[in-house]
């Protein structure tokens, strides 16, 4: 996998991620990517209901959230997390990226959208953008 | 089956397989299926509901599934590992999700459901209501089959209903 300059929090600690996807394969893939960005995965969930409870326990800096999942879909889970934690930074990661879905996700509190299959360099830039001022300065482009 | 419905699936499979397997897949077969579907090996089924309803099955033989899973996870697996089935399901999710994205942006509204492992040996063949299309792609890992059974329920947004 391509090498990336680490993206860190302002306090120098690794960015903490909650990875939500009903596919174990997809979660493993995303975990590999965020670890290559210098991040730390503090929680995983396979559906929206678990994601909401995991968010409260793990208090991640960023949530990577699938949309199409059993029990509760990602957009509804994102809305509930943002209602309880307005500071939550949620990036939707889904293969279903039509306009209405993206707009619905953004209107309900998601900060960004990345379409699957995920390109590491795209996710890297989105994470830096979503972290904004909370990211330590100096995280460069893919090396 | 209308070409405008078929093309997004061809394009999505081509793009997703190319990116994930880092290869240039070739479309080997594209035809209407007259015979009942027979599963090749490890298969994932995705249901879609809305203006178009039906199901899509992505199917690969066990050896191809194992090669794809090892390549995509970067680990040594055996054929019975759950991750092999998971890989095929996620591949189906991404191909079908991308096709559905294109179709929705073209005005066909429908919802896609999470992929599930498909274990039945046989499936439906074409009938008056439902057309079945099969396509296969050659990749370095082996052949990837898709079996698409769909029927239109309602007109697309913007289409004028003419008096009959």
What does this structure look like?
The complex is a heterodimer of chains A (143) and B (164). Chain A is of the alpha/beta class. Helix content of chain A is 39%, strand content 17%. In chain A, α4 (99-107) links the parallel β4 and β5 (112-115). Chain A is globular. The longest helix of chain B has 24 residues, at 82-105. In chain B, α1 crosses α3 (82-105). Chain B has 164 residues and is α+β, with helices and mostly antiparallel strands. In chain B, strands 1, 3, 4, 5, 6, 8 and 9 form a seven-stranded antiparallel beta sheet that branches. In chain B, strands 2-7 form a two-stranded antiparallel sheet.
Provide the β-strand percentage band of chain B. Answer: 25-35%
How would you state the average pLDDT of chain B, rounded?
A: 87
What string gives the helices and strands of chain B in order?
Answer: HEEEEHHEEEEE
**Helix content class of chain A:** 25-40%
The largest β sheet of chain B comes out as: 7 strands, antiparallel
Number of strands of chain B: 9
Please identify the structural class of chain A as seen in this structure.
alpha/beta
| Main sheet characteristics of chain A | 5 strands, parallel
Rg over C-alpha atoms of chain B, rounded to the nearest angstrom: 16 Å
